[in-house]
Write a structure and sequence with these properties.
Elements: E1 2-9, H1 11-16, H2 19-28, E2 32-39, H3 43-49, H4 59-66, E3 71-79, H5 81-89, H6 102-106, E4 115-117, H7 121-131
Antiparallel strand pairs: 1-3, 1-4, 2-3
Helix pairs in contact: 3-4
Adenosine-3',5'-cyclic-monophosphate binds next to loops.
Length: 141
């Protein structure tokens, strides 16, 4: 069944010039770009997005990083899009990410880890709605 997930190409990966390589991987693996835009998050927008992590010791540093430069936000759609995207991304910590995954290839460290992907259907709904009104989701599979 077709499913939606939110993907973010984080500021570290945008700065490395690997937007195209990341998107090529999604498309080659059956994930369709249903919506996409480049944004520069304010600190407040980053804090809102990562609100579930607000008690974590890395929250301030993470939201500084996420607001440090442009990011690409996308809605990916396709069969098992949430799990498929997580498989392509690899483990949160690039030191533990499998060979060939996006984080193994492009992440710097556990914080500057190149990409974000929703972890479950409910979070996917909330995260997509945070960045995309329904009328901007224009190319769903
Ligand atoms: P993401 O998948 O976007 O979800 C939460 C983010 O917090 C994660 O990727 C990392 O960017 C960051 N993160 C998770 N764990 C740590 C940590 N131990 N130290 C710093 N940043 C972290």
């Amino acid at each position: 069944m077709s499913e939606r997930t939110l993907s973010i190409i984080k500021p570290d990966a945008v700065a490395k010039g690997v937007i195209g390589q990341i998107i090529a991987d999604f498309e080659a693996n059956g994930l369709q770009i249903a919506a996409m835009k480049m944004i520069r998050m304010s600190k407040r927008v980053a804090q809102g997005f990562y609100a579930v992590h607000r008690e974590r010791p890395f929250f301030d540093s993470l939201t500084d990083f996420m607001s440090s430069g442009p990011a690409v936000v996308m809605v990916l759609s396709g069969d098992n899009a949430i799990a498929k995207n997580r498989e392509l991304m690899g483990a949160t910590n690039p030191a533990e990410a499998a060979e060939g995954t996006l984080r193994k290839r492009f992440a710097t460290d556990i914080e500057k880890n190149a990409v974000h992907g929703s972890d479950a259907p409910e979070t996917a709904r909330t995260e997509i709605a945070y960045f995309f009104p329904e009328l901007e989701i224009v190319n769903e599979k």
